[in-house]
Design goal:
By secondary structure, this protein is of the alpha/beta class. It is 32% helix and 20% strand. It has a ten-stranded mixed beta sheet with strand order 7-6-5-4-3-2-1-8-9-10, sandwiched between helices.
């Protein structure tokens, strides 16, 4: 692991590992970053139970708060470990997600998930909510026409029913009162003029993460810094729990694993991603040493929003 800017030792409650379990999705967002170079073996590791268990065991051991041999501990101290399950759309494989969440719990990890919300049925919420520390939902607009233009909808043109979503999220909180609710909004050329304060206020998340569209894979729908800042300013005075990330804030400050089980990282001037060797091939320590990670960037995000990455 190479830390580009080595800070003085900082402490956070938890270290978050983002496992993007699949590239598959039922939406077709035009600026989607979940497009990875295919490894020599293109199969997604997530579908192999034995390999998934091995990956989770290695991650839990290497990133354990008790592992003082992890070189990241020179820059950062953490007291717990959280596995964040992302995609693509992870709930396309709901039963597998439940299995992974239970495995992670058995290894001492907290678990969170980020979803587009379209598959958050009442039954799925009932199964999933008790296992989660954080439930994250991506919502980029309150306008159905803009959602279709972005690609946030199915092939038949249907988009997320925001009333049903609000009902589902209330149910999740009833099941698990300790659950933290997070909303993610990507600001792009299509939605930067929108006022989303009524929707965000109605849902009442613990955190609303507002991200400037990151051109890691494509420049489609990129938004200027000025337009992004106007969106932020429009909502900042509403008393919303907003956490803002511009492009530089997102660069090299997340611990991320791709569907083939490789660490990957973005960079401010890079199109596409840099990848490590497969974790199960070389081990967590060797693979993590092959990517760059800015511990101070992670810490600043954590301190800013209080919930974690």
């Amino acid at each position: 692991m190479r830390t580009l800017a080595q800070p003085a030792l900082s402490s956070v409650d938890e270290l978050v590992i983002n496992w993007h379990v699949t590239e598959a999705c039922n939406f077709r967002c035009r600026y989607c970053y979940a497009q990875w170079d295919k490894a020599p073996d293109p199969r997604e590791l997530f579908h192999d139970e034995a390999a998934s268990r091995q990956l989770l065991e290695q991650l839990a051991a290497y990133f354990s708060p008790d592992n003082c041999r992890n070189p990241l501990r020179d820059a950062l101290a953490w007291s717990s470990l959280r596995l964040n399950l992302a995609g693509g759309e992870p709930l396309l494989y709901g039963l597998r997600i439940l299995w992974v969440a239970r495995q992670a719990h058995s290894l001492g990890m907290r678990v969170s998930i980020i979803t587009n919300g379209s598959l958050l049925t009442r039954d799925r919420i009932g199964e999933l909510a008790p296992l989660l520390t954080v439930l994250g939902v991506s919502i980029d607009t309150a306008d159905a026409a803009i959602a279709r233009d972005i690609g946030r909808g199915s092939r038949n043109g249907s988009v997320l029913d925001l009333v049903e979503l609000q009902q589902g999220l209330r149910f999740a909180r009833e099941i698990n009162p300790a659950l933290h609710l997070k909303l993610n909004t990507v600001v792009s050329a299509l939605n930067h003029r929108e006022d989303m304060s009524a929707l965000i206020g109605a849902i009442g998340p613990d955190r609303w993460k507002v991200l400037r569209m990151l051109p890691s894979v494509t420049d489609a729908l990129a938004v200027t810094a000025e337009a992004f800042e106007r969106f932020v300013d429009r909502h900042r005075c509403m008393g919303l729990p907003m956490c803002v990330e511009d492009n530089h804030d997102m660069s090299q400050s997340y611990i991320m694993i791709d569907p083939q089980g490789r660490f990957f990282q973005n960079a401010p001037t890079l199109k596409g991603y840099r990848y490590s060797r497969p974790i199960l091939e070389v081990g967590v320590g060797s693979a993590f040493a092959q990517i760059e990670f800015e511990a101070d960037g992670f810490v600043s995000r954590y301190v800013a929003d209080g919930v974690g990455a």
